[in-house]
Structures are given as structure tokens and as C-alpha cells.
Amino acid sequence: MDRKLVIILGLLLVSGIALSLAAYFFGVFKFDLKVAFALREENDPALNAFMTAISFLGDGWVPVILVVAVAAICAWKKKLIEAAFVVATLSSGVLAGVLKMLVGRARPPSFTLNPWDIFQSFNQYAYPSGHVLFFVVFFGFSGYLAWKFLFGWLRWIVIAICASLIVLIGPSRIYLGEHWVSDVIGSYIIGTFWLIILILLYQLVIYRRGLNEGNSGSVKNPDAPTQVQG
Description:
The protein is mainly alpha-helical. It has a single domain, classed as Vanadium-containing Chloroperoxidase, domain 1. 74% of the residues lie in helices and 0% in strands.
């Protein structure tokens, strides 16, 4: 593994752990409160509708539908390993749930828990943002696959959409009063770490498959006739 990548992963891991511990021991930070109070004065219907639409892509069963749709496209294109790793991006939800339970940070006062939420046991907690984690991991990996397999204008359109959604989901969660700023910052850090891990695992699987195919192709068939040179 490249040394720079190891350093980046180490920094992300240390930063994620440090911020998670700070959220556990100190609760909400001063800058969290300042931003929350400032946003209470904002009341732009158009902006609210836009942020709600962005946030909707991470609500309820929508992430599962998105993952199944992209995985189905990969399977249809006979990219079964890619389909499996797209499904693996749902692990971001498991990671978010575990961290929410461990940290146990309260949501902003404006947050209202949906009574129909099937994950109420951990969605009542703020840190980290499950939406941001999912967006970074799922749309990040989808953008990586687009860069790897698509060409021309389609590649850049898909990458631009994925990148835009990743950038916008954090501010949308803060603006809607669903999360504190530090929830979002921590989620971007943890999500980026997890995305890189998934990409590295994917590359490892592809590399080993290539080795196996190369080795199987180099084995001679013992039943093949032997050419006799005269």
C-alpha cells in the first residue's frame, strides 16, 4: 500500500476516534450551538424544499432501494463483484448505528423522531449522521465505479452528481435541524475512511481474481497432444 495512503487512513482514523470520544465526553460543542441558533432565524421555503429533497435520499428505505438499483445494474452488466461491493456500502448504516449507540449524543432541539421510524432505538441519537455516512460511502463508491467503467460525458455526469450529493447532504442535515455541525464533520471523516477501506478491499479482490485467472490459464492441459518436431 502506498505510504501516503497509509498516512491519510491513519489521520482519518485518529481524527474520527478523537471526535467521537469528544462527542461522548463533552456532548455538544459551542460552535454547534452557535450554528443551530443562527439557523433558527433562517426561513427560506425554497431552500428548505431543496434541502429536504437532498435529505430524502437518505430517509427510511430509500438507501436500500438506491443500493439495490445500482447493484442490479452492475449484475446486469455482469459485474458481480462490483454488485457485491455496492451492497456492502450498506455497512455504513450498521457503522452509524453502532456509533450512535456508543456515543449517545442528543439530537438538536428542533429534531422530531418519526414515530414510524423502524430504527428508533438508535436514530434518536445524533452522532454520527447516518445520512452523511451513507452518502459518502454509497455515492463515493458509485462515483469510483463510474470513473472506472464509464466513458465520455456519461462518466463525468455521474461523478458530478455523486460528488454534489456528498457535498450537499452535510449542510442539508444541519439546515433542517437534524444534526449538529460536529455530527456532520465526524460523519464525513468516518465515511471517507470507510469508503477508502471498501475501495482497497475491492481492488484486492479484483487483483486476486486476476492472479487466479492468470494461473489457471497458464496450466497446460495434460490431455492435449504433444507436438513432435521433425
